[in-house]
Amino acid sequence: MNAPIPDPVSKPSRHALKRGLSQVFAPEINARGPIRVIHRRVSPRFSTYLADVVQIQFADGSREHLLCKYAHGVENTPFSPHRGLAYESRVYEQLMRHPSLSLPRYWGSFIDDETGDFAFVMRFYPGGMTAAQGCDEGGLTELIRWMAAFHAWGEAQVAAPEWNFLLQYDHAYYTHWLDLTLSLARPLAHEYPWLEQAAAAYRDRIPLLVARRPTIIHGELTTRNTLWADGRIMPVDWETAAVGPAEIDLAVFTFDWDLEDVRTLEASYVQARWQGSPPKGFADVMLAARLYVAYHWIFSSPDGRDVDRVRRHLATVQRKVARWGLIPASYLIS
Questions:
Q1: What is the Cα–Cα distance from 249 to 237, expressed in whole angstroms?
Q2: Is residue 255 classed as helix, strand or coil in its secondary structure?
Q3: Residue 112 near residue 206 (C-beta atoms within 8 A)
Q4: Is residue 4 part of a domain?
Q5: Would you say 217 and 151 are in contact if contact means Cβ atoms under 8 Å apart?
Q6: pLDDT of residue 141
Q7: pLDDT tier, 8 (very low <50, low <70, confident <90, very high otherwise)
Q8: Is the CB of residue 150 less than 8 Å from the CB of residue 103?
Q9: Which domain holds residue 237?
Q10: Chain segment 70-111, per-residue pLDDT in tens
Q11: Which residue of 49, 224, 250, 325 is surrounded by the most CB atoms within 10 Å?
């Protein structure tokens, strides 16, 4: 009788998890003794991936609290900024070589020997919260400072061969999101007479993004993707890391904030990054970056093709481009 084919979307069994973690923690096991899994529960944090919070104990009695994420067959669409867990693992491996960066502890990865799925292992911070939740403790201020310092660091790193695997934001990448939007909106074109004008505003500004000095960017650096723990900011979810202009991260971060808050956050970034004097053309590149975010934000996921979601997305684009003065103010919706 043939053995049953493992379900590719299942999480590792307890035995497979222990074997995989034993590989990840091999250097620690040499010093602290074999491990056993003493606790495992579903992660409370929403994610694209199945994830567990796991506690292990070494033979010497010491313990580690872990977050284990499993690829479970998730496939990303072409041009998607989401590159998968194996990609994120590679990003972490490079970032962890630079201890000056404030990041969560990444332990490593393993392949589930029963299903063939990829698993990603990092430290779990029980008292951690998002940067927004940590506002009263300075989380938001520290995130802006972290972003500015990271981009300055990334400019000097981005040309190194070890970063060649990163997604490169180029003209084709930026144009893809506009073309996709227009394609999905075509059946609804009569509802959106402003769309061609808004599309031209973005198309004309794409060269500004391409020409901007690149750095390493997170790609989706929001308060939701940043951990405030142990009194410091630690960005997480690095599968959207790429090579592109720093303004992309700042545009993503400020996209859903009120206009007054956007100005304050942007000024804080400029002060932290350039002591208050941004490079020439900064405002123009920021507008181009905001247009990129407006076009790609929803359609980076497969369900962006649902008609109702298309309408909601186009309403967001309409509101944003009207606020930025790129289409008549009469199109400004609440």
A1: 14
A2: coil
A3: no
A4: no
A5: yes
A6: 82
A7: very low
A8: no
A9: 129-331
A10: 987 666 666 677 888 999 999 999 999 998 999 999 999 999
A11: 250
Per the domain annotation, does 192 fall within a domain?
yes
Q: What CATH number is associated with residue 93?
A: 3.30.200
Is the pLDDT score of 122 beyond 70? yes
Min mean pLDDT across 132-146, 202-216, 258-272 is at 132-146
Amino acid at 50: L
Closest to 250 (Cα-Cα) out of 265, 271, 238: 265
Domain count, the chain: 2
Q: Which one has a higher pLDDT value, 308 or 168?
A: 168
Residues 133, 33, single domain; the answer is no
In degrees rounded to 5, what are phi and psi of residue 165? -75, -15
Cα torsion 289, 295, 298, 300: sign:
negative
1 occurs within a structural domain: no
For residue 271, count CB atoms less than 10 angstroms from its CB and return exposed for 0-12, middle for 13-18, buried for 19 or more: middle
Instruction: State if pTM tops 0.85.
Output: yes
CB atoms under 10 Å from CB of 166, counted, come to 21
Residue listed under structure tokens 């008549």: 328
Q: Let me know how long the chain is.
A: 334
Q: What is the rounded distance in angstroms from the CA atom of residue 115 to the CA atom of residue 53?
A: 20
Q: Which of 123, 144, 172 is the last residue of a domain?
A: 123
Identify whether residues 103 and 51 lie together within a single domain: yes
| Coil, strand or helix at 237 | coil
**Mean pLDDT, rounded, for 118-126:** 93
CATH number at residue 302: 3.90.1200.10
Smallest Cα–Cα separation from 69: which of 29, 106, 23?
Answer: 106
Dist CA 209 CA 161 (whole Å): 23
Say yes or no to pLDDT of 13 above 60: yes
